[in-house]
Amino acid sequence: MKKWKDKEEFKKIFIRKSHVAWEKDVRDLIPNEVYQTVAFMIRDLISEDWIKTNKMYVEKKVKQVYYFSIEFLLGRLLQSNLISVDMETVCREGLHDLGWDLDAIIPEERDPGLGNGGLGRLAACFADSLAALRLPGHGCSIRYQYGLFNQRIVDGQQVELPDNWLVDGYPWEVKKVDKAVNVCFSGNAYMRPDGEGNLECVYENYHSVRAVPYDVPMVGYHNDTVNTLRLWRAEYTREDVYRVLAKGNRHEAFRYKDNVQLISRFLYPEDSTEEGRRLRLMQEYFMVSAGVQSIVRHFKQKISPNIKVFGHYVAIHINDTHPALVIPELMRIFMDEEGLPWETAWDITTEVVAYTNHTILPEAMERWSIPLFKELLPRIYLVIEELNKRWLQQVRNKNPGDEAKAREVAILWDNQVHMAHLAVLGSHSINGVAEIHSQILKESTLHAFYSCFPERFNNKTNGVSHRRWLIQSNPQLAQLIDSAIGNTWRKHPEHMIHLSAYAADTAFLEQLDQVKRIRKNILASYIKAEYDQQIDTDSVFDIQIKRFHLYKRQLLNILHILNLYYALKENPNMDIVPRTYLFGGKAAAGYGEAKMTIKLINVVSKMINGDHCLEGKLKVLFLENYNVSLAQLLFPAADVSEQISTAGKEASGTGNMKFMMNGAITLGTMDGANVEIHHEVGDDNCVIFGLRADEVMKYYVHGGYSSWDLYRTNEHIRMLLTHLVDGSLGNGNYAFQMLYDSLLDRNDEYFVLKDFDSYCEAQKNIGCRYQNHYKWLQSSAVNIAHSGFFSSDRTIRQYARDIWHIKPVEST
Ligand code: T68
Q1: Nearest CA to ligand 1 atom 15
Q2: Residue 733: its pLDDT value, please?
Q3: What are the chain's domains?
């Protein structure tokens, strides 16, 4: 790996580079120019390794995995890349000599908003682990011009502003014009005899869109592996524009250009309209077709002309169902372009593809209307139709007269394309993302498929990159761990378990306390600077940061806070451990209840923070625009990790792991990976409350819970709900009718009220535990020690071994 020898060399290169790039004296650079200069210098360091990595994969003919994901939530890359090439100190010192502070330069990079939440961030951690483990694996996604919206809070309400993250350019990407491919939409497709007794497909009158890749390096930690994240952008071709222009209609030509570019313009365009849904389906096929075409082309050019051995060299992973069209796209290419018969094409396809499911919420399962699908992707539809026909024939032969069975597993049903069913049928491996989630998939959501293909189902509990979420986000804690157990954990996170021996070491615990204090102070300074609010670093920092959704139950959290507030008003001498409650997260623009919950939090926050009687006891803040960079400030500062989803609803959660790694205590339900965190650390070191998943399920199936009954019998609940709608919150300006309705008229689908008392107890329990500060620190240490299991390195090793069958590639 190339490096800067020392800070002197760094400065020399920096000055030369910035002269060429900006035609300015170094003293006149603006911070953004400094950021870009350093980024280009890092690109220089890694470029040889990047070329070499690809060459090595080809020369050694190793099997490679391509991880298709509609989102990659990378976060900033400057610091993580500096850490990977082990040049952070040299860079910091060099910049310092030149009058710049690296910490002031880092925020110049805009967070690439190429994701919504957990699923996209998981993909980024996986790319990080693949490179760190020297595994031959690459990402495939879309280069959205606009990321998810920027969130502002105005008058307590979420306002969505465009996230034009590319305005200043993106120094990490490389446009590869020569690697462009064409993706075809619409037109007519039909089968006709090929003259040799078989059928062949004719596909004509389609529109083609040019897909141009932008490659981003995924730099391995302290090794010389540089993998690739390939992001596709939709472009029009000059020839196509001329063709339209030749018809004499300039407006038509502009419309054509616009429509093509629209494909990669926004992450998740509004899907409440037919037009929005159409665009989303176009994005999915665009990414899939471009990605698959480029993989097949590379295989044929560089690996083998024999397409039948494709599966020995290529694994394709689909991150949820958004890329599931990989399956019919591979079939199309194998049959229409490579001339393989259906059966052979199908065998190779299922050999190659594997699928991860991330949700069991029925409303989150992807389905497309058949008329829309047929119109946009006529050739792909024919493949799916044939697949569905063959599959249902098999199912009906096995289960004669059982139409319910056919319905349960059909890809085409009720005028819809069921993407999860397509994904399961076309994959040799189907996995959930935590033990409990994988169990629910087998027993309930995908039970019918599990009966057909039990051997395909498996679990891969999620993990997070301890490099980003500990080494980079919390260097103080990382150093403390080094001083206790040495630094081998940085490459082998499972070694963190050796910290267990320090959970009873007073000197270590005191230092751990110091580290937490430092991190709480850093967060407090940020909050002071951004919100002009003073938060008490002696209080418990209790944090819930994640997307807003009814099932994640931010509402439960804020109702408890409101209850505490009323209790304190009634009894000002009540003895409580001072608390700072922090929230962050975005609500989908069209999700009324989620946006209303944000508003409720802000109204309650204003009321509580403005009440001087509560000073030193209770503070509530909603932090705007939660993203990866803000997350890096929040996880290290947390005492309590709020993981309070309705049991059975959160597939895994990954924030829970980042909190744990930074020494926070989980306050959670037995849901997702919380179950495994609880298993690792035991009852003494986390606080579990609420209904269990099987109890929730029983209520759904057999009934027996009435939120109105609770309302009538529980005076606290009655009082809280009354205040939601009687105008007493926010000076009578706000009525939270929508939330009231979801809790009562819609019978509290997510058991917020049912779990309320149990949650209040759990909060009291947290207070008691915190008061015994020595024990609290012990718990914190135990959590850190056991967080090694939740490193994405462990997860990726399991995928590599059990699903992809790929091995690390050592440089020669
Ligand atoms: C999350 N899913 C799960 N989905 O909710 C979370 N969905 O429990 C899990 O830890 C995480 O995946 C990683 O496995 C998502 O984040 C989405 O973002 C999403 C986006 C579009 C459509 C459906």
Answers
A1: 119
A2: 63
A3: 7-268 (3.40.50.2000), 502-700+756-796 (3.40.50.2000)
